[in-house]
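FW: tagging you since you asked about this chain on Friday. Here's the raw sequence from the shared folder, copied in full. Didn't touch anything.
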Amino acid sequence: MSGRERIQAAFSGRRPALITYVMGGDPNPKASVEMALACAEGGADLIELGVPFSDPIADGRTIQAAGERALAAGTRVADVLTVARHVRRRCEAPILLMGYLNPLLAYGVERLVDRCVRSGVDGLIIPDLPPEESDGLAALARARELGMVFFLAPTSTEARRTAVLQSASGFVYFVSVTGVTGARTSLPRELGAQLDAARAQSRVPLAVGFGVSTPAQVRELGRHADGVVVGSAIVSRIAQSGSTRARAERVRRFVSSLSARRQAPSSLTADE
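HL: got it, structure written out here
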């Protein structure tokens, strides 16, 4: 099964897919393998592995701090790919590498795509790579059947919306709020309608993320999207003190709370 096919299969269930984010190398590369596997054990359908970067413009303080911890542990692009390889050996969930363009360019895009395939990575999410500037990397990814994920925001122009919907081959990532990543107790009331409109236009699954932090929010957003991304709320639990086993168990329990209760009615503004 190719990377694109594995991603599409993860969205083919009767319920919206749960997508979880873990920073590769946080608190160190070996431990981050266990954090990603804990997400899968808790019920995650897809796993995003972050590549640490010193200037993460789309990330709030929680994920910035995770990147700093990973960099302090010596984590680089190659190390995150090694994390992906170890996760793939023990888990069938699709793995998406999420990182900023500079370190990926420094690593080399042809080398990156080749190593992604060999490591079991199924797709790429690059927040600062707009579809209009992605032709070279997108062509390499397409040739190796990796999915490419692009972002839509509530403020996206019609031209950007068209470019994203035409270029995405993994899923479309809809940013729930204007701003950076980070857990929020409430999300915009108009978000559901925005998601419905984008989803109706998209030929690939539509996932929503940024700010999603509670089971109630996951349930409600799942009514309007094909997938829901939870990141900072997981990363904050990894940041708490304890052994690798204790951290992984915290993550597993939290992801399980998101996964098990997605079908119940709720409200976007509920907090748990």
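FW: The first helix runs from residue 3 to 10.
HL: agreed, and The domain at 3-260 is CATH 3.20.20.70 (TIM Barrel).
FW: great, closing this out.
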